[in-house]
Design a protein that fits this description.
heterotrimer, A alpha/beta, B alpha/beta, C alpha+beta, A: alpha/beta, seven-stranded mixed β-sheet, C: alpha+beta, Alpha-Beta Plaits, two-stranded antiparallel ribbon, 10% helix
Chain lengths: 388, 331, 97
C-alpha cells in the first residue's frame, strides 16, 4: 500500500504512467500539459522506466508515432490539450478504428478563438465521436488511478481501444494534492505486460490500415461501435477489481446525496468537488439538492444514468463547452437524448460554466440550483455568469 | 526502338545479366491495382527485394497504399501499416521506437528489423514535410523513400512541390494565360542533406540495380537515411505505358534527374551521365504534360537544367565528407 | 475478374480491418485489363532477365529452360518488357478475345 504524499497532479499522472511500465512515450508540449511531457521525459532520462521518449515535432506526429509504436506491440502513452488535441484530430478516429490501446492524458484546455490557455472541456468535446474511451477525473487521486485503469481497460482483448483520461488543465494539473501512489508491485499485479492481438513483425505478417471500400466500411464502423459500447462491461470489471485491490470505488456516475433530491447538479471533472460543497450548503438550508458526477463519458453510461435520475425532479446539467448553433452543451444534449424515451423523466436545464478557465464558486452552484428549481430557464441553455 | 539498343553506353554500369542476381522473392505481388506501366509499383517491388523480409513498411496515403491494400486482400508480403496522409514519417518513427524499445527490453527477438517509411511526392514533400523533417533530425534508425512522380497522382494529377517547371497538372494546368506550373521543382534531396543524415541518395526505377544497391546501403545505416526515387507515371504524364523505363533514362541522360548519393556529406554520382548531355527536348517530347511548350519555354528549361547540373557538379567535385574534415582535427 | 469472396457480416470483419493473408491480392486477376499481350520468341531471347526485372506486376518468371514467360492472370499488357527487351524477342500482340 503506497504512502499518501502531496504531489503536483501533472507529475502524478506521469508517475502513474511510469508505474505501468510504458515502452514508448511520444509527446509534444502544450500548456497546461507540459509538466506531463516534461516529467515523462525525466522518468525516461533517469532510466526509471526502460522506454523510448520521442520528442515529436507536433501533436499530429505525437499520436501518429504513438500509433506506429503501439502497432509493434509497445505499451504507449501520450498527452496533450486543446489545439494539440484538435491537431491530432485527424488521427483520433484512426487510432480507435485500428484498435490500438494507446493511453492519452488530456489536460483539458479551452479551444482557440480567442486563444485561451485555461481550463474548459471544449477540446475533448469535438472528440466524442472518435471512438475513444473517455474517463473524467475529479481530483489527483482519480487521475492516478484512472491512468493505470486506462491501460488495463484498453489492452483487454475484449476492448482493444485507445483511452483518454481527462483532467482539468491548471485546476488539476498545476495543483498539489494528497495522493496515495500505488506500489510498483501492486500495479504489476493489477496490470500484466501487454499482449497485443497483432503486431508489425516479419514472423507473422499483417497488413494494418487497409482500404475500406463501401461494401466493407459500414460493417467496420458497426464493429467498432459494438466494441466501444460493450467495453462498459470491462470498465465495470476493472473498477471492481480496483476497488478490491486498492480500496477506492469508481462508478460511471457517482451520485452524491441524490436519494431524495429534488434538484440535482450534473458535473464532469474537478468542478464536481466545488459542487459537492454547494450541495452540502443547500442541504443545511433545507434544500433537497443533490449531485451527479460523471466519470465515464464514453462509452456513455445509459443504464447508470437512468438509474441515477430516478425520483429527481430537475437536473441542472453543467457544461464546460458549447456546441455552437446546436442544442447547448454536449453533456446536456446527450443526457436529454438518453432520457427522452423514459416514461418519467426529469426536467433538464443547462448552464455553460467555467469557459476559458473562469472560476466557478460555491455560490455559483448554489445560484444554479435555485434557478433550476423553477424547472425551466428563460432560454434553452444559459451562458452562466456572462456579462451583458 | 528502345533506348537500350540505341545507346548501349547509356545503360548503367552493370553486367547485362545482373537482373537475374536479384532475389526471386516477390514481396509485392501481382493483383495490385496500379495502372499499366506504373513506375512506382515497379520501384516498390525492387525496393522490397533489396530490403528483404525483416522490414516493416509504413505507407502514406496515396496510389501505392490504395492499390495494394484493398480490404480483405493485400499485395504486401512484409508487415505493413498505413495510417494517414501526412504521417508516414512519424508513424515510421513510432514503429522504429517501438521495435527498438521492445528489442532492448527482450520482448521481441534480438534481430534487426528495419523501419522503412514510404510516400509519394505529395505525402513527403508537401503534406508530409513536417513529419519527415522531424523524423530525419531526431536520428531514428529509419529509411524514408519518397516515390516522386511529380504530382498528386492518386487524387487526380494535382500540382505538388515536386511538379517540374511548366508541367501541366490539374491544379496548375496549361491554360490560355498561365502555361502550367510556374516555379521550379523543389529539391527535397538537398533539404534532407541539410538535415545531416548519414545517407541521402537519388534513384530511379529505370536503374534497378543502382536503386537496389542504394536501398541495401541505406538499410545498413544505423540512423536516418533518405532515398528520393524518381518514378514514371504514364497516366499523369500522359506518356505511353511502355516508355516507363525509357523516360527515367532520358531524365538522367539530359541531366534533369541525376543519380547520386551523399554519404556523410560527400557527393558522388552513381550513374555516369554522358559528357554531352542530351537536350531536354528529348525527354519532354514523350510526355503529354509538356505538349504545350514553345521552343522559347523549352530553352528556359534547358538553361535552368544546365545550371542545376553545374551546381551539382560543383558539389560532386568539392564536397568532402565530415569524416575527411575531421581527420586533420584529430591530430 | 475473380469472384469476390470477402467477409459478409460486421462480425466477420477483422479487428481494425487487418489483413492476415499476406500477398492475397493475387486473388484479383488484373489480366482482364489487357488490350495487348507479350509473346516471347525464345529463338531471339538471350535470357538476360531484363523483362523480369522491369515488370511492375512481378508476373514474369523464368521457366525450367531459363526462358521467360508472363503470368497472364496478372499481365496488364503495359508493354515495358517488349520495349526494353535487348534483342527484341518480345512482341505485343492484340488480345484475341
Amino acid at each position: 500500500m503506497g504512502k499518501r504524499i502531496g504531489m503536483e497532479v501533472a507529475i502524478a499522472s506521469a508517475e502513474a504512467a511510469a508505474l505501468c511500465r510504458f515502452d514508448v512515450a511520444a509527446v509534444y508540449p502544450i500548456t497546461p500539459q507540459s509538466h506531463v511531457a516534461e516529467h515523462l521525459s525525466d522518468i525516461v532520462a533517469d532510466g526509471r522506466v526502460d522506454a523510448s521518449f520521442i520528442t515529436v515535432e507536433s501533436e499530429h506526429s505525437a499520436l501518429s508515432s504513438a500509433m506506429g509504436a503501439s502497432a509493434t506491440g509497445a505499451r504507449v502513452v501520450t498527452a496533450t490539450s486543446s489545439q494539440g488535441l484538435l491537431f491530432m484530430g485527424e488521427v483520433m478516429p484512426i487510432a480507435s478504428a485500428m484498435r490500438l490501446p494507446i493511453v492519452m492524458i488530456i489536460a483539458n484546455r479551452a479551444v482557440s478563438g480567442p486563444i485561451n490557455i485555461w481550463n474548459d472541456h471544449s477540446d475533448i468535446m469535438p472528440m466524442r465521436d472518435t471512438g475513444w474511451i473517455s474517463f473524467f477525473a475529479d481530483n489527483g487521486q482519480e487521475v492516478v488511478d484512472m491512468v493505470i485503469q486506462a491501460f488495463k481497460v484498453g489492452e483487454d482483448r475484449r476492448v482493444m481501444l485507445p483511452v483518454n483520461v481527462n483532467l482539468d488543465g491548471f485546476q488539476l494539473t498545476h495543483v498539489v494534492e494528497p495522493i496515495v501512489m500505488p506500489d510498483q508491485e501492486e500495479v504489476d499485479r493489477f496490470l500484466p505486460p501487454y499482449e497485443p492481438f497483432a503486431t508489425l513483425h516479419p514472423d507473422k505478417v499483417v497488413t494494418m490500415g487497409a482500404l475500406g471500400m463501401p461494401e466493407f466500411y459500414a460493417e467496420a464502423q458497426k464493429a467498432k461501435n459494438v466494441a466501444i459500447v460493450n467495453s462498459i462491461d470491462v470498465v465495470r470489471e476493472v473498477w471492481k477489481e480496483w476497488e478490491k485491490g486498492f480500496g477506492r470505488k469508481y462508478e460511471p456516475i457517482h451520485a452524491y446525496r441524490t436519494e431524495d433530491a429534488d434538484v440535482a447538479l450534473v458535473t464532469m471533472g474537478s468542478m464536481g468537488e466545488t459542487a459537492e460543497i454547494a450541495v452540502d450548503e443547500l442541504r443545511r438550508e433545507g434544500v433537497k439538492a443533490g449531485l451527479l458526477k460523471i466519470k465515464l463519458w464514453r462509452p456513455f453510461p445509459f443504464e447508470d444514468l437512468k438509474k441515477a435520475v430516478k425520483g429527481i425532479r430537475v437536473l441542472a446539467v453543467t457544461d464546460r463547452a458549447c456546441s455552437f448553433g446546436g442544442p447547448g452543451g454536449p453533456v446536456f444534449s446527450e443526457i436529454r437524448s438518453a432520457l427522452y424515451e423514459g416514461a418519467k423523466r426529469p426536467k433538464i436545464v443547462n448552464f455553460l460554466i467555467g469557459l476559458g478557465g473562469r472560476d466557478v464558486h460555491v455560490e455559483d452552484f448554489v445560484a444554479m440550483v435555485r434557478k433550476a428549481a423553477k424547472g425551466k430557464l428563460s432560454e434553452p441553455y444559459e451562458f452562466y455568469g456572462v456579462r451583458g | 526502338m528502345n533506348t537500350a539498343m540505341k545507346n548501349i553506353k547509356s545503360i548503367e554500369s552493370f553486367e547485362l545479366f545482373a537482373p537475374k542476381l536479384a532475389t526471386r522473392e516477390e514481396y509485392f505481388v501481382g493483383g495490385h491495382r496500379a495502372c499499366q506501366g506504373c513506375g512506382e509499383a515497379l520501384a516498390i517491388r525492387l525496393m522490397l527485394k533489396a530490403l528483404g523480409k525483416d522490414t516493416v513498411i509504413t505507407n502514406a496515403t496515396g496510389c501505392m497504399e490504395v492499390i495494394s491494400s484493398v480490404y480483405p486482400t493485400t499485395a504486401w508480403n512484409v508487415p505493413w501499416i498505413h495510417v494517414a496522409f501526412p504521417n508516414s514519417a512519424s508513424v515510421g518513427s513510432g514503429v522504429e521506437a517501438g521495435l527498438t524499445a521492445l528489442r532492448r527490453k527482450g520482448k521481441i527477438a534480438d534481430r534487426r528489423i528495419k523501419s522503412v517509411a514510404i510516400g509519394g511526392d505529395g505525402g513527403t514533400m508537401d503534406i508530409g514535410f513536417q513529419a519527415l523533417s522531424g523524423a530525419m533530425e531526431r536520428g531514428h534508425d529509419m529509411l524514408y523513400v519518397c516515390f516522386d512522380n511529380e504530382a498528386y497522382m492518386n487524387t487526380g494529377i494535382q500540382r505538388s512541390s515536386g511538379t517540374p517547371f511548366l508541367a501541366s497538372t490539374t491544379t496548375a494546368p496549361a491554360g490560355k494565360v498561365i502555361p502550367g506550373n510556374q516555379v521550379w521543382k523543389k529539391n527535397l534531396a538537398e533539404i534532407i542533406v541539410a538535415h545531416n543524415v548519414p545517407y541521402v541518395a537519388t534513384a530511379c526505377q529505370s536503374y534497378p540495380i543502382d536503386f537496389m544497391n542504394k536501398v541495401k546501403k541505406a538499410r545498413k545505416v544505423k540512423g536516418p537515411s533518405y532515398i528520393h526515387c524518381f518514378v514514371t507515371c504514364p497516366t499523369g504524364w500522359r506518356s505511353p505505358s511502355e516508355t516507363c523505363i525509357k523516360l527515367g533514362r532520358l531524365a538522367l541522360e539530359t541531366g534533369i534527374f541525376p543519380l547520386y548519393e551523399v554519404e556523410d556529406g560527400k557527393y558522388r554520382l552513381t550513374v555516369e551521365v554522358p559528357e554531352k548531355r542530351r537536350p531536354v527536348q528529348d525527354y519532354l517530347k514523350g510526355q503529354g504534360r509538356f505538349r504545350h511548350l514553345t521552343p522559347d519555354q523549352i530553352q528556359v528549361i534547358q538553361e535552368r537544367v544546365d545550371i542545376e547540373w553545374e551546381t551539382l557538379m560543383i558539389k560532386v567535385k568539392n564536397s568532402r565528407s565530415r569524416e575527411e574534415l575531421r581527420a586533420p582535427r584529430a591530430k | 475478374m475473380t469472384e469476390k469472396k470477402g467477409p459478409e457480416t460486421w462480425q466477420e470483419i477483422n479487428p481494425g480491418c487487418m489483413v492476415f493473408r499476406p500477398g492475397s491480392a493475387s486473388e484479383y486477376h488484373t489480366g482482364s485489363w489487357r488490350a495487348k499481350r507479350p509473346i516471347w520468341d525464345n529463338a531471339k531471347c538471350i535470357k538476360c532477365g531484363v523483362c523480369y526485372i522491369f515488370c511492375p506486376e512481378g508476373c514474369i518468371t523464368e521457366d525450367a529452360d531459363g526462358f521467360f514467360v508472363a503470368n497472364f492472370d496478372y499481365c496488364k499488357g503495359c508493354g515495358i518488357c517488349a520495349h526494353e527487351c535487348w534483342p527484341k524477342a518480345i512482341a505485343m500482340v492484340n488480345e484475341e478475345d
